[in-house]
Amino acid sequence: MNYNWTLKDAIFTKDKGKVFSCFACGGGSTMGYKLAGFDVIGHNDIDAKMVEVYKENHKPKFSYLESITTFAKRKDLPKELYELDILDGSPPCSSFSMAGNREKDWGKEKKFREGQELQVLDTLFFDFIDLAKELQPKVVVAENVKGLLLGEAKKYVIEIYKAFDKAGYTCQHFLLNASKMGVPQRRERVFFIALRKDLAPNFMEYVDMFKVAPKLKLEFYEPEICFENIKEKDAKREKVPDSYIKHWENADKTGRAKAESGNTFGFFYKALNRLSLATITSGGSYAIEDSAELMTDLEFCKGGSYPVDYNFLGNKAQYLIGMSVPPLMTGKIAEQIYKQWLSKLF
Predict the structure, then answer these.
(1) Prediction pTM value
(2) Distance between CA atoms of residues 108 and 106, nearest Å
(3) What is the C-alpha separation between 62 and 341, in angstroms, rounded?
(4) Most CB contacts within 10 A, which of 2, 56, 215, 325?
(5) Are 262 and 285 in contact (CB under 8 A)?
(6) Where are the domains of the chain?
(7) HEC string for 62-118
(8) Per-residue confidence at 93, pLDDT binned at 50, 70, 90?
(9) Annotated catalytic sites, by residue?
(10) 23: helix, coil or strand?
(11) Alpha helices (H) along the chain
(12) CATH class (in words) of the domain with range 18-223+322-344
């Protein structure tokens, strides 16, 4: 797997098992599973524009444009969805992000983008687990922001573990950084990985003197890929708006500066040649270090390990990439799930 790749040249073997992806957005995690050799047979999302992008690039067998709350209550799902190796999902995470309002938004209904329903974002994770309880895939993978492990949000982690237990799964979580996994982006995310209880005895190991649990080892130590490796030479670039020049000049050593207004999370990012990119967000402004100019779509694709020939259907590349799990990040995790667990069940 390499961050610089194309869909047209990729070889997807589809021989490692079947996956269904929820909250699939433009298909970031889907591409990771496909790179790891899985067959992603379908997806679900609430955003009509993202569903069209997904269908254009992945041609799914099953496609559901509806909220996870509605989807989890369906009783007319095809038989194949009850035979999954992995159920994947990235429940919306802004309620727990350190860049958002956190506790102020917990329990509130919110509406995002055109045509979407009001949703209580911090309960969608549990709707996703309800779907897992119904479908009973071998493995469930759920991705979320690092902020879920911090402060009062840790209470949700306890509830997530309880919900997985009631659904018939043993669960463990991992905090991983994409920059250690071949992605030119410093993106920390927590992954909850749950194994169906009837399969767990195959993989039990001692956690300590008194407890055994199914063990999965996820450790990645790949060298960081600096921005200079993905930077386009002689590219035509837009200029940093005048209102952001002072932020561009005052960015700290990580490349981040607090902006007064004008972007989603109130931050401005400078792509420093000696570092991999700061976390790509769906909003905000990103400029290169040695000129007051903005990053290109191709640089965003490489920074997010998206294929450089992905068809965004006119949507902003940064938005989709910022909303997605980097394909290489998912791919490396999926490889290990297959190697350590699924391959030993056949």
Answers:
(1) 0.90
(2) 6
(3) 26
(4) 325
(5) yes
(6) 18-223+322-344, 227-315
(7) EEEECCHHHHCCCCCCCHHHHCCCEEEECCCCCCCCCCCCHHHHCCCEECCCCCCCC
(8) low
(9) 93
(10) coil
(11) 28-35, 48-58, 68-71, 124-135, 154-167, 245-249, 297-303, 317-323, 327-340
(12) alpha beta
Q: How far apart are CA 288 and CA 279, in angstroms?
A: 15
How many Å is the maximal CA-CA distance in the chain?
62
pLDDT > 70 in the chain, percent: 89
Torsion of CA 204, 209, 210, 216, to 10 degrees: -30
Query: How many Cβ atoms from other residues are within 10 Å of residue 152's Cβ?
Result: 10
Angle at 311 between CA 51 and CA 280, to 5 degrees: 80
CA distances from 229 to 187, 281, 303, 331 (A): 17, 20, 10, 21
Per the structure block, which two tokens stand in for 189?
A: 């995310």
Beta bridge partners of 239: 293
CB atoms < 10 A from the CB of 236, how many?
7
What is the C-alpha separation between 103 and 69, in angstroms, rounded?
A: 22
Give the DSSP letter of residue 6. -
Q: What is the pLDDT of residues 23-42, one digit of tens each?
A: 999 899 999 999 999 999 99
User: What is the length of the chain?
Assistant: 346
Q: What is the CA radius of gyration of the chain?
A: 20
Q: Using an 8 Å Cβ cutoff, are 281 and 244 in contact?
A: no
